[in-house]
Amino acid sequence: MKLGKKILTVLAVLASGISVFAEDAEKISVPLGGMTVADVPFKIESFRTADAKIVKAETVADTQIRLMGLAVGKTDVHVLGGGTSKVFTVTVQDNIREIFNAIRKDLDSVPELDISINRNKIVLKGEVANIKNWELIHKVLPNYPGVVMNLASFAPAPEVMLNLHKALEKAGFKIGKDAANAQPGEIVVELADNTLIVSGSVFAPDDIKQVKQIFATQSWLDSDPAAKNGNKVRLVEKIQVVPALLDVGVVFMGISRRDSEAIGANLMKNGIKIGNAFNFNTNFHGNSQAYALDASLNTILNLSADTGINRFRNAGHLTFMSNESPTFKRMHNGGTLKVRVYGGSGGTGTLNDVQYGFMMGVKGGLTGSDNVKLDLELEMSSPTLMENNDYDLKVTKVVTTVTAKLGQTLVVGGLKDMVQSTTDNSGIPFLRKVPVLNWFVAESADELNDRQVLILIYPQIAGKGPEIKMPPSAETADTVDKVEQDNKKRVREGDSKKSWWQRIF
Hints:
Blueprint lengths: L1 H23 L1 E6 L3 E5 L6 E4 L5 E7 L2 E6 L3 E9 L2 E10 L2 H11 L7 E5 L2 E5 L1 E2 L2 H10 L7 E3 L2 E2 L3 H13 L3 E2 L10 E7 L2 E8 L2 H12 L4 E2 L10 E9 L3 E12 H13 L10 H4 L6 E4 L3 H10 L5 E10 L7 E13 L8 E17 L4 E15 L5 E15 L3 E4 L3 H6 L16 H4 L3 H4 L2 E11 L17 H6 L2 H10 L3 H5 L1
Parallel strand pairs: 1-7, 9-11, 10-12, 13-14, 15-17, 16-17
Antiparallel strand pairs: 2-5, 3-6, 4-5, 6-7, 8-9, 14-15, 18-20, 18-26, 19-25, 21-22, 22-23, 23-24, 25-26
Helix pairs in contact: 6-8
């Protein structure tokens, strides 16, 4: 009884193995009197044919077996070797002309294809340009295994390549024409036979990921170098990351609400767009957001000066390698206080350095050939002398992330409170001597009642952008006009500005 159960179990296992073979079997069609050669991924040791009257099998190489159609019908050929096996389900068909007519009917919508009969094979030739037609061919052919020789190739139509170029340009990449003469930041796409070669350079590793994502959307491309899929164009990527030196220039602008209205109107009049469609007048007041102006820094400064704004100061430049470091690169424009810090009872204390003025930290870099993403830490501080002869450090800080195109001006606001809190009717004598801040605070409180500081950020590739040119200051704006006047006219104008008491004495 137990022996019978064991026999049933073995038969069940064998039956399950046969079903697995049937499911995994590779289907092949052979015309009557014809033959085909099949490949196996191992060295053939032996083979078995279920019905030798339908198909004759014989080895022609270590990993190849030839199958010949002897009679109309279907049978399995089981090939073994290396501890594994492969099953072919071979169908022998009587009339190849019927298969030919069926394939022509299935592929009637592909006009570029030439279909003919060569002995016992149906041969496909032609150059297919339409992606959908190419995909259709490779949906139809698996239904006729072993009897079709596909010699057709795929050559993308001009509009296919044009759409690919547009997708790359929309993502911010520049397209070059010649791989040998490509400039840094340019990508060149060339089609050679059945291979699409993408070469060139980008400025950040994330750019390479983005390029790969764009090509992954193209169903006609195969990016796997080990794949043997003949129905796709092979994609070869040779893109490298090139280092780029960024230069971030900083300029201050001191404006009032009235100035803001005039500047905004002047920018719009000259076609300057404000990023994200924010209103220049209402959103910069007490706001730490950043806004992108679609113009160079020199253009913005000159247009602002045209409206009467001439309170500018060039804080300097910060140059660093794009995407080089996760830490901030820093710039300091101001001074340093020596502050004595006491610790414990009876101690004499130690002198510590406390920086004040303008400090900027920047990290990030290029995200495309002409796009930049920067993390900014902007700080303005001033020491205030208190009644006990100690100092209080007033600090206003802005932390933000900005994105823009190279050569585009970024405006950061939100430093209004500090300017107001450090000013009285006569100005603070100490602050008059502080670099960067003195030109904001050395005037009356009425004029500063609604004044704020705008910080203009200007990123560019070091050495490739224009030099920042500052408009004349309030004190020197009319120097040229004064020089051109004769002495008598200058004396008359000077006298007209004096009081009657000064004229007499």
